[in-house]
Q: What sequence folds into this?
């Protein structure tokens, strides 16, 4: 598979920082952006692959809500029964186009469906053994999150799982300051300049709204999930799995 172009979206000084959007410019470099911006991204994908493989059942669907360029689906393809259908939903046509291109390049043979939808309006899912939101729930307006998680819960089969990876707030402001500092140190190590870090932070300020880890856990339990646990944690990033 061809290597993703390098993320330089915020390399140059911008006079007016607009809200972050998953447009064609971002979609074209997204794979590099997320790999360099999310700690242990490759390991997270491996963990999601393992979890999904243990919960996916033949004849069911795996939903990736906010599927972006399809990286998570491709990471788990060989681990999941070929009779499982992949259903990807995203609110960016540019991301869906890139996802389809990657599936074609990969030679994906299993059944799949890619759909355009705004998750702020809820979601209709059916016959799902696994549903995932990998760094997506944080972009849903807080007002709409409980309805969305309720929709996911209802659409999951019995004993199905919901996997969420999120940027989170710490339980106390002292840890917030430290964790954010460590996170930006990581981005510097991965080649981002101070200008890039600052401009992207401004672009995301009104778009990415994180909850505390416990707030996410309580949301999942409140909407009906029997069990919720943390499978990954790195400063202000976490992975959660909930079972219906």
A:
């Amino acid at each position: 598979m061809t290597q993703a172009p390098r993320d330089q979206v915020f390399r140059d000084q911008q006079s007016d920082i607009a809200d972050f959007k998953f447009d064609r410019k971002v979609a074209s470099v997204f794979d590099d952006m997320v790999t360099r911006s999310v700690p242990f991204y490759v390991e997270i994908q491996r963990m999601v692959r393992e979890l999904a493989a243990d919960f996916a059942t033949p004849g069911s669907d795996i939903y990736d809500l906010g599927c972006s360029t399809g990286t998570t689906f491709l990471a788990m393809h060989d681990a999941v029964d070929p009779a499982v259908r992949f259903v990807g939903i995203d609110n960016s046509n540019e991301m869906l186009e890139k996802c389809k291109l990657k599936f074609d390049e990969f030679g994906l043979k299993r059944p799949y469906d890619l759909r355009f939808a705004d998750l702020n309006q809820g979601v209709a899912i059916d016959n799902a053994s696994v549903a995932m939101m990998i760094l997506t729930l944080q972009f849903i307006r807080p007002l709409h999150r409980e309805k969305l998680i309720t929709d996911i819960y209802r659409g999951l089969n019995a004993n199905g799982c919901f996997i969420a990876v999120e940027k989170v707030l710490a339980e106390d402001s002292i840890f917030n300051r430290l964790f954010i500092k460590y996170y930006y140190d990581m981005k510097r190590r991965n080649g981002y300049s101070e200008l890039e870090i600052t401009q992207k932070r401004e672009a995301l300020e009104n778009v990415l709204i994180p909850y505390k880890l416990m707030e996410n856990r309580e949301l999942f339990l409140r909407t009906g999930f029997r069990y919720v646990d943390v499978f990954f944690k790195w400063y202000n990033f976490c992975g959660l799995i909930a079972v219906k």
